Amino acid sequence: MNKDPRPSEVRMSELMTPESANFLGNVFGGTILAMLDKVAYVTASRFAGRTCVTASFDRVDFHSPIYVGELVHMTGRVVYVGRTSVQVEVQVHAENFKEKTYRHTNTCTATLVAIDDQHKPTPVPELEKKTREQMIAFLIGKSRRELVQKHKQELADMTSRIEAMSDEELRKAVEDG
Length: 177
Description:
Layout (H helix, E strand, L loop, with lengths): L8 E7 L13 H20 L3 E11 L8 E11 L3 E12 L4 E14 L17 H32 L3 H10 L1
Antiparallel strand pairs: 1-3, 2-5, 3-4, 4-5
C-alpha cells in the first residue's frame, strides 16, 4: 500500500446541474458554501486522521458567478494547524466545456477542530513546513489566526460599548451615521 505524498491537500470536482440554480440562473451561493464546507471537512479530517468539525469560515469571497453546466473544481489545502485546529484554504475554479474556459471563482479559509470519540477537541499532527510555499502558507495562516482573534476581541469590546450607551447616545450615534 502506497502512502499519499500530499495528505494535506484534497481535490474534488462536481458538475453544476439545474437544481443548483438561483433566481438568476447562476449556481446558488449556498450550493457553493455547502461544497466548500465538504472540501474543508475532507481536507482537515484526512490530514488529522479523525473527524473534524467546522469552527469558522474566516471569509468567503465570490469573484465571479458559476453557471449551470460548468464543472466546479475545489482544492482544499491545510495551511496552518494549532493544537487541535486545522486551517484549510479552499480555491474554487469553474470550467466551461463549451467556451473552453477555466476561471478562479471563489476563495475561502475555514478552521476546523479535530474531535475524539467523545466529541472533545483532540490534538492534530504537526504540519510539514519544509518548502518555501509551505513556510509562507504557515506564516500567513498563523497571522490570519492572530488577526481573527484580535478582531473578535475588538468586536466584543465595541459591542459592549454600544450596548452600554443610553438611548440618547444611541439616537445621536445613529443620526451621525
